[in-house]
């Protein structure tokens, strides 16, 4: 089960009040959304978005009691303005992003997000055509090296990219793991992370959605973003700075908020989390 990360802090920054409306752009199991829903009762609504149709299907079964106050949509948050239009949701008092994959993806999706299980190399959240299998089998060596270096910050990217190309075809996580182990790389984590970010175009989606989110916020509305990768955090930091300079937002987190030692102990997945929040100027 996915344990929501920095939940107390998210609620503090978003400050949901009775009858306000919120958008959770990465709703997954609804860990954050259900806590917000409790604070915005009796009439506040949530628009919950996830790119993954299976995630939305699972959540629909879980939220039967709240159905009237949650609108669930399977879509990419990069289409946020479009989504708000076709659901007729209107302006929001707060918008949340809790980026990346969830524990469900690792533990249950069967799509090759983890090297701890032998699964096909898929790694998609949504309906995009690109898979991890396509990257490792069809991309030129230079492009694989670029992905490993940029998204995985992998020092030995060149050697590994060469090995990947030599060992083709590569169909499963365990095949890839064997290749990683035979190179000088200690942790396969970053290789898997790099492929996942590339497959799902994660950094570009984040860049696309941030200006849309600020537009959709009510004056005085808040935006909170939890990231798990330094490149994501950099995008958020830069965007906030630019919007602040334009006079659109006030930054609520001078430095990113990180989980306490206790939270990391209880939920090791939270260890790389960084939360930044801002308020749209009135
Ligand atoms: C870390 S989980 C969110 C967990 C959730 N906040 C909770 O506490 O239960 C991130 C979710 O975002 C979804 N996701 C990632 N990128 C997305 C995108 N571009 N558009 C929509 N959903 C996305 C993933 O499918 C995943 O379910």
Automatic annotation (TrEMBL):
The keyword Chloroplast does not apply. Residues 261-282 are annotated as: Disordered. Keywords: Cytoplasm, Methyltransferase, rRNA processing, S-adenosyl-L-methionine, Transferase. S-adenosyl-L-methionine binds at residues 30-32, 50, 77, 98, 105. It comes from the Bacteria. GO terms for biological process: rRNA base methylation. It catalyses: cytidine(1402) in 16S rRNA + S-adenosyl-L-methionine = N(4)-methylcytidine(1402) in 16S rRNA + S-adenosyl-L-homocysteine + H(+). Its main location: cytoplasm. It is found in: Cytoplasm. Coiled coil: none annotated. Its EC number is 2.1.1.199. GO terms for cellular component: cytoplasm. GO terms for molecular function: rRNA (cytosine-N4-)-methyltransferase activity. The keyword Chaperone does not apply. Specifically methylates the N4 position of cytidine in position 1402 (C1402) of 16S rRNA. Belongs to the methyltransferase superfamily. RsmH family. This is Ribosomal RNA small subunit methyltransferase H. The lineage of its organism: Bacteria, Candidatus Nealsoniibacteriota.
């Amino acid at each position: 089960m996915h344990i929501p990360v920095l939940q107390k802090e998210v609620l503090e920054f978003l400050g949901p009040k009775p009858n306000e409306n919120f958008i959770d752009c990465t709703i997954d199991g609804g860990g954050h959304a259900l806590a917000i829903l409790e604070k915005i009762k009796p009439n506040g609504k949530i628009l919950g978005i996830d790119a993954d149709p299976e995630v939305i299907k699972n959540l629909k079964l879980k939220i039967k009691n709240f159905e009237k106050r949650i609108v669930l949509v399977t879509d990419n948050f990069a289409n946020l303005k479009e989504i708000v239009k076709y659901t007729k949701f209107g302006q929001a008092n707060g918008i949340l992003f809790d980026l990346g994959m969830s524990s469900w993806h690792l533990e249950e999706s069967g799509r090759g997000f983890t090297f701890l299980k032998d699964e096909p190399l898929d790694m998609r959240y949504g309906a995009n055509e690109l898979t991890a299998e396509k990257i490792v089998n069809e991309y030129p060596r230079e492009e694989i090296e670029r992905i490993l270096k940029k998204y995985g910050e992998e020092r030995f990217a060149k050697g590994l990219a060469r090995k990947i190309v030599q060992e083709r075809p590569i169909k499963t996580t365990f095949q890839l793991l064997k290749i990683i182990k035979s190179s000088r790389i200690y942790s396969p984590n970053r290789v898997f992370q790099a492929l996942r970010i590339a497959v799902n175009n994660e950094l570009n989606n984040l860049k696309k959605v941030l200006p849309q989110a600020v537009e959709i916020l009510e004056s005085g509305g808040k935006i909170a973003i939890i990231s798990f990768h330094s490149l994501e955090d950099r995008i958020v930091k830069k965007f906030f700075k630019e919007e602040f300079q334009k006079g659109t937002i006030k930054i609520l987190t001078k430095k990113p908020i990180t989980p306490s030692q206790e939270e990391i102990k209880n939920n090791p997945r939270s260890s790389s989390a960084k939360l930044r929040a801002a308020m749209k100027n009135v």
